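Mods, move this if it's the wrong board.
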Amino acid sequence: MNTPATPSVLFVCVHNAGRSQMAAAFLTRLGGSRVQVRSAGSAPASAVNPTVVEALAEVGIDISAEIPKVLTTEAVQASDVVITMGCGDACPYFPGKRYLDWQLDDPAGQGIAAVRPIRDEIERRIRGLLAELGIEAAA
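Not the wrong board. Structure tokens:
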């Protein structure tokens, strides 16, 4: 049941293999059961970017079992906040939802040194989002 006490956040990028996976992982880690987390892509890749998996492993988050998911209308409708990351017009729009667009470099094809600052910026933004939602980040 989606109640105001448990806000639902959907992260969307094109392939659901990098940025949206990192954002979902950080929100799951820092928000715990106090927030419902989804991620999806408008054109999902066949696998999560291995450099993204490595970058998150460095900070103690294991997403090696995650698989990119296709964006559905239902996922958008069930979410209170929809955060897009470079998917442009591919993201469906529904009135009454809160939309945020996070401009972040795409980790696709990048080495670990280029992915770390993206990872760190996503964590910073997730902490800010939790503060906006009135949820204290887990230690």
